[in-house]
Amino acid sequence: MDRHQTYAERSAKQTNAAAIQLLDTIDRKKTNLCVSVDVTNSKDFLAIIDAVGPYVCLVKTHVDILEDFNRTLVEHLVQLSEKHDFLIFEDRKFADIGNTVALQYFSGVHRIASWAHITNAHPVPGPSVVKGLASVGLPMKRGLLLLAEMSTEGALARGEYTDEAVRIARTHRDFVIGFIAQRRMEGVGLRPGETMHPTEDFLVLAPGVGLDVKGDGMGQQYRTPRQVVFESGCDVIIVGRGIYGKPEALDVQAVQAQAERYRKAGWDAYLERVKRE
Ligand code: 5BU
């Protein structure tokens, strides 16, 4: 992918419905910000999402964190995604055999496939994890991200593991729309003599983004939106605590101000990247 290509130009070449929807939303709303909402009660969860909705292309959830999860909550989440025009990404990190992940994705308490446009998986089980999830997600027009790298100190997802993640993605380009990673993945994992398919364009969504601190004391490492989007060529910045702070002291106006601050930083970094001299 030529780093100067715009989100709109790239959308025109995608085939997966979730990838197209995400790129079009980014282009329409002028935001490459995804807010990650890791709080334990649904009142704060929905209040944060309603506050940040206008500033984001995507909301990332960990619904298993919520103590009062129920179907009504999902209905509210979907209503907010329609009201504010964003997609939903459940950061479930599936990592089991194909049959099990298909059940975890479709069934259980959370029924993730019924409401999350995008979810993700660790490539650790090999290609079968994608096959299992695709059996549920493709007919529902969903998209999958593979975890090719992580933002944490000492992460094992590197080198040959990352190469294999990209190879798996290449064999399932209808369903795998991109990666959770820290840099672009074009050309990664190509064997000698192999060339990249001309239409290959994986989206890269990067967590570990913060403007004010470098880490959280528990292994998380933060880089700035400019480092992530301009220097490393990632497409979406994922920001959690940098935007909502401490949920015990939720201040909606402060959350909105932070969301706009990150939106602008991410968008300016994108404009700087696509600019042609
Ligand atoms: P934070 O509050 O901005 O640190 O939250 C980051 C979120 O991204 C959190 O939900 C993590 O589970 C998620 N995450 C991450 O931080 N790093 C990774 O490599 C992956 C996910 Br994969």
Based on helices, strands and strand pairing, what is the structural class? Answer: alpha/beta
In total, the number of strands is 8
Mean pLDDT: 97
Text of the CATH class: Alpha Beta
CATH homologous superfamily descriptor: Aldolase class I
Unique ligands: 5-bromo-uridine-5'-monophosphate
Please tell me what the overall shape is: globular
How many structural domains? 1
CATH topology: TIM Barrel
Biggest sheet record: 8 strands, parallel, barrel
**Rg, Å, rounded:** 18 Å
Strand-and-helix sequence, N→C?
A: HHEHEHEHEHEHEEHEHH
Strand content: 5-15%
Helix content: 25-40%
The CATH level-2 architecture is identified as Alpha-Beta Barrel
Strand order of the largest sheet: 1-2-3-4-5-6-7-8
Low-confidence stretches: none
Number of helices: 10
Distance between the termini: 18 Å
Protein name: Orotidine monophosphate decarboxylase
Organism: Vararia minispora EC-137
Characterization of the model:
There is one protein chain. With 277 residues, the protein is an alpha/beta fold. The chain has a single domain, classed as TIM Barrel, CATH 3.20.20. The protein has helices at 7-11, 17-29, 42-52, 71-84, 98-106, 128-137, 160-170, 225-231, 241-244, 252-274; strands at residues 33-37, 58-61, 87-94, 118-121, 143-147, 176-180, 203-206, 236-239. The chain has an eight-stranded parallel barrel, surrounded by seven helices. Helix 3 (42-52) crosses helix 10, helix 5 runs parallel beside helix 6 and helix 8 packs parallel to helix 10. The two termini are 18 Å apart. The mean pLDDT is 97. The structure holds 5-bromo-uridine-5'-monophosphate (5BU). 5-bromo-uridine-5'-monophosphate binds next to strand 8 and helix 9. 5-bromo-uridine-5'-monophosphate is lined by residues 36, 38, 62, 91, 147, 150-152, 180, 207-208, 216, 220, 238-242.
